[in-house]
Write a sequence for this structure.
């Protein structure tokens, strides 16, 4: 995306994780915290049900940011996020972003991940090589 | 009660993780990545990587074994029942590829209190077998009611 400019929106990424996604993410990542995989335990600690791993949602933010750099993993140089809401399985996640600046072939992008009005990740900033 | 800050500056023993091709593929599939560089050795090499390459956020997989014991250390004293993952940052250097041996060390950067919440900040530095920095992570945990 050589013609990327400050203020441009990046392509939205929309993903609806299925009921068992947290189980697969637990296996892939090694994070078996039961609030992500055991509905009864999640309810016992006051949650509506199992919740998504924050780092899975960060993985989707990284995917959307990497796509701006042509989908090449080496294009993503830095990603900082704040987790501000719990994500639920079986609900669509929309990752959106706006280019903040482009300098020396590197774009800085503000990114948000949300389920409806619930912004699960905000104040995220990605640095991506775009040339 | 004042928050314990004795662990600021403390470092924990490094852990070593050998990156495997199938583990990269498993992670990439879960996050929905389909670039063949995550699955196919020839495609990865054609794209300029040394071998099948890990997605950037695979940094979690090789860094967690180092930062986990730091978070659990009684000298840090986090109340896990009231803890949430508040923020995360990674800076990436040399890509992590299948066959790499990545050594990660964790350090406690800061412990502070604000509005009744404890903020615990850890850093991980992951270095490959050639001494190149692969990923630096900053992990911020927030504990309510400290």
């Amino acid at each position: 995306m050589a013609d990327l400019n400050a203020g441009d929106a990046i392509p939205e990424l929309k993903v609806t994780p299925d009921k068992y996604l947290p189980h697969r993410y637990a296996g892939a990542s090694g994070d078996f915290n039961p609030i992500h995989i055991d509905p009864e335990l999640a309810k016992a600690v006051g949650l509506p049900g199992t919740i998504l791993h924050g780092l899975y949602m960060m993985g989707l933010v990284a995917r959307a940011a990497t796509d701006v750099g042509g989908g090449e993993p080496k294009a993503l140089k830095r990603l900082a996020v704040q987790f501000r809401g719990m994500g639920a399985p079986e609900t669509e996640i929309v990752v959106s972003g706006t280019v903040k600046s482009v300098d020396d072939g590197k774009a800085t992008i503000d990114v948000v991940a949300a389920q409806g009005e619930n912004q699960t990740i905000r104040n995220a900033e990605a640095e991506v090589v775009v040339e | 009660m004042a928050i314990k800050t004795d662990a600021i500056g403390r470092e924990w023993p490094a852990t070593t993780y050998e990156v495997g091709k199938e583990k990269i593929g498993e992670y990439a599939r879960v996050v929905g990545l389909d670039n063949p560089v995550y699955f196919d050795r020839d495609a990865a090499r054609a794209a300029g990587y040394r071998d099948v390459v890990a997605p950037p956020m695979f940094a979690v997989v090789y860094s967690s074994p180092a930062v986990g014991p730091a978070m659990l250390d009684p000298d840090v004293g986090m109340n896990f029942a009231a803890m949430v993952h508040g923020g995360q940052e990674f800076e990436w250097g040399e890509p992590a590829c299948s066959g790499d041996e990545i050594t990660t060390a964790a350090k406690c950067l800061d412990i502070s209190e604000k509005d009744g919440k404890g903020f615990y900040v850890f850093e991980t530095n992951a270095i490959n077998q050639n001494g190149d920095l692969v990923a630096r992570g900053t992990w911020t945990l927030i504990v309510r009611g400290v």
Summary: Chain B touches chain A through 35 residues (CB under 8 Å). The first strand of chain B starts at residue 15 and ends at 18.
